[in-house]
């Protein structure tokens, strides 16, 4: 029914990639916290949180729509060349607009202008993410290339940190080196694609770029809202609370990124297959998604228990010191990876069947829910409010995705994936 060997191969490569995402912080974060301190670490993380909004704006939902297009047209080189050209030139337009807005914000907001060099150099991360052709390799199911790009960029970043970050005042360059490593890898990967896959650069017309912005609007709103729903916590905390509280939560967010990684790599691995099965038969898709849910339950429930019990040890492993506040925050968010994994069947079914409007409504609602909850809880409980808001929002989104399919797309309801008997 579906190709298990390619899936296993892709999952293995992405696991190696996420292994790098886990190991590199273990090397870097204790060093950075010792060199620059928790307050400056909080500022660096806050700047990263800000530019991540622009990363998602420049991406404009292409990380989903382009994967789907490439997956369905992988055997048509001319079509792939067309996709390649219109995507990158549209992204360049969005990048220029983003930098203009970002520059104005840095000048206008006093708290940002005081650290203008930190914020402006952090924009290199936006450029790096724009260049990385992850969407292309996902679409043709060459996850080894995705993994290699990530491993090489993380390795370069680590080298830059140990070479150039030697004192507390160097914290303003950390994000620049992060972005620079991605730029180098992204440019190299694009060059390889053009040569190896014989992709021609097709310059799109201005009308085609405008058309791309219109066509992708719903997906962009969905993806951007999903990001806001799950990642506004650090930004809101940075505005309302002090840098030290932001630093404590930033450490937990970095750890959460690592322990949530298996759900992300599972998403990346199975999405092309989900798209192909959705074209063939919904029954085949449900059977496949049942196997994914089984995998999620036997993997993520033990993971949540381990993270909760050993939160003190995990924080100390990542930070190099005992931080009680960060340990308590990690306990609160320990269930988030489980909820994220269990939302995959509903999320990918919606995307595979192009239910753009429904998905956008849910994600926008989730974003509003998260921001509102954060503002209320952070004002009262500081970083602990952020942790509770993050957990509650993840649960809210998961429930809404399944309920929306049941109520408005009943023929594609995926509640059946929880009937695990064969």
UniProtKB/TrEMBL annotation:
Its main location: membrane. It is a multi-pass membrane protein. Keywords: Cell membrane, Membrane, Transmembrane, Transmembrane helix. InterPro entries: Poly_Biosynth_Transport, Polysacc_synth. It holds the Pfam family Polysacc_synt. The keyword Membrane applies. The chain crosses the membrane at residues 12-32, 44-67, 88-109, 115-137, 144-165, 171-197, 218-241, 261-279, 291-309, 329-347, 359-381, 387-405. It is found in: Cell membrane. This is Flippase. It comes from Fulvivirga kasyanovii.
């Amino acid at each position: 029914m579906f190709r298990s060997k390619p899936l296993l191969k892709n999952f293995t490569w992405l696991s190696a990639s996420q292994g790098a995402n886990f190991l590199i912080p273990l090397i870097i974060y204790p060093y950075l916290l010792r060199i620059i301190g928790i307050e400056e670490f909080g500022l660096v993380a806050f700047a990263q949180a800000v530019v991540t909004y622009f990363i998602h704006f420049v991406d404009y939902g292409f990380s989903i729509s382009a994967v789907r297009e490439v997956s369905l047209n992988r055997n048509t080189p001319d079509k792939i060349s067309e996709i390649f050209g219109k995507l990158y030139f549209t992204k360049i337009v969005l990048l220029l607009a983003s930098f203009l807005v970002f520059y104005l914000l840095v000048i206008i907001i006093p708290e940002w202008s005081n650290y203008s060099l930190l914020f402006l150099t952090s924009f290199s991360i936006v450029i790096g993410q724009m260049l990385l052709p992850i969407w292309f390799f996902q679409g043709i199911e060459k996850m080894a290339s995705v993994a290699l790009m990530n491993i090489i960029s993380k390795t370069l970043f680590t080298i830059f940190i140990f070479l150039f970050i030697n004192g507390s005042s160097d914290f303003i360059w950390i994000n620049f080196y992060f972005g620079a490593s991605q730029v180098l890898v992204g440019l190299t990967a694009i060059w390889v694609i053009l040569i190896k896959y014989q992709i021609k650069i097709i310059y799109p017309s201005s009308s085609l770029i405008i058309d791309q912005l219109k066509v992708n609007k719903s997906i962009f709103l969905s993806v951007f809202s999903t990001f806001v729903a799950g990642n506004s916590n650090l930004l809101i905390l940075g505005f309302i609370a002090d840098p030290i509280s932001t630093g404590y939560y930033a450490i937990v967010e970095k750890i959460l990124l690592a322990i949530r990684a298996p759900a992300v790599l599972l998403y990346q691995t199975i999405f092309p297959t989900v798209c192909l099965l959705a074209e063939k038969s919904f029954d085949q898709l449900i059977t496949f998604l049942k196997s994914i849910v089984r995998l999620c339950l036997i993997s993520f429930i033990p993971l949540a228990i381990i993270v909760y019990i050993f939160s003190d040890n995990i924080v100390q492993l990542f930070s190099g010191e005992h931080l009680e506040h960060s340990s308590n925050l990690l306990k609160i968010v320990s269930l988030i990876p489980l909820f994220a994994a269990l939302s995959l069947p509903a999320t990918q079914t919606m995307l595979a069947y192009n239910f753009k409007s429904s998905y956008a409504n849910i994600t926008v609602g989730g974003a509003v829910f998260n921001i509102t909850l954060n503002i209320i809880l952070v004002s009262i409980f500081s970083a602990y409010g952020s942790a509770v808001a993050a957990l509650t929002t993840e649960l809210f989104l998961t429930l809404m995705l399944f309920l929306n399919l049941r109520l408005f797309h009943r023929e594609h309801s995926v509640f059946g994936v929880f009937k695990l008997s064969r």
